[in-house]
Design a protein that fits this description.
The protein has helices spanning 30-41, 45-56, 60-68; strands spanning 13-14, 21-22, 102-103, 111-112. By secondary structure, it is mainly α. It has a two-stranded antiparallel ribbon with strand order 1-2. Strands 3-4 form a two-stranded antiparallel sheet. The chain is elongated. The N and C termini lie far apart (46 Å).
Amino acid sequence: MERAENTLPTIGERCPKCGMPIPQFADLRDADHQRILKLISSGQKIVAVRELRIATGCPLTWAKLWVMHSGRAGFVEETAPCPYCGKPLKTDRARQCQHCLMDWHDPQNPKKLG
């Protein structure tokens, strides 16, 4: 795996959203898997990436991809809904909506983009 340090995986179930193959690690023990998922769910993604690399010896790019998808293709992280249209925002920190095009970077002066 060391030779794959700057490469992306070429096999694995593909994420329907981004199209990337999500690596699976046969040598990832169940206890490590559960601990890393707990780190992800508590927002400690950088720590989760580090722990996955320690547990598997995988490249940084693979660990980041795995953590972003919580180890499975098709995983969609739930985010807060848009306060204007109610559809999910791209991230928890988003201040504009890709669906209704509202922008509230300045909460006192929300505006519609486009």
